[in-house]
Structure formats: C-alpha cells, structure tokens
Amino acid sequence: MRGLEMRGPRTQSQRDAVTVEIVYAAFTGALLAGAVFLAVAAPALFFDAVRGDARVGVLTAAKAAGATAFVIRVGLVLRRW
C-alpha cells in the first residue's frame, strides 16, 4: 500500500489486504519465535546438557529470544508493507 494516501474511507479490498498482511506477519512471527526458542532451549530440553539453575536461565533466555524474534519479524513485515 505504498503511496496510498489516507483520504476517505478504505475500500473493502484495502481492508482485506491489511488483514491478510497482519495475519501473515503474526503467523510467520510465531513460526520464527518457535524455531528460535527451540534452537536456544534444545540443550536444556532435549540433550539434558544443562541442569539446575543454569537450565532455568537457558529456558528464560530462550523465551526472551523467541519473543524478540517475534516482535522483530512482525515489525519488519508490517513496516515493509
């Protein structure tokens, strides 16, 4: 929608395009967040390489990395559009 000026009400097709873009951004962001979480948390979850308090730290870092990846992905997709 680059170059589209915000004059008057949007058409139905413009509203549909916005909806599709938002859903696409959220879906791909969620997939990326899940992949990043699993990549960071894999040593603690699957390989049992991390134990005790370090496991909690790794899982917390995985959550933060996943959330960050989600926000960045959604922001980049919506900004690009």
Task: Give a brief description.
The chain has 81 residues and is mainly α.
How would you portray this structure in words?
The protein has 81 residues and is mainly α. It is built from 2 helices and no strands. The protein has helices at residues 12-45, 53-80. The protein is rod-shaped and about 60 Å long. The model has no long low-confidence stretch (mean pLDDT 92).
Question: Keywords, please?
Answer:
81 residues; mainly alpha; 2 helices; 77% helix; 0% strand
Distance between the termini: 7 Å
- Spell the H/E element sequence: HH
Instruction: Work out the number of β strands.
Output: 0
pLDDT average, as an integer?
Answer: 92
User: Can you tell me the overall shape?
Assistant: rod-shaped
The low-pLDDT segments are: none
The major β-sheet equals:
none
Count the DSSP helices: 2
Which range best describes the helical content: under 10%, 10-25%, 25-40%, 40-55%, 55-70% or over 70%? over 70%
Strand content: under 5%
Rg to the nearest angstrom?
A: 18 Å
Global structural class: mainly alpha
SSE layout and pairing:
Blueprint (H helix, E strand, L loop, with lengths): L11 H34 L7 H28 L1
Helix pairs in contact: 1-2
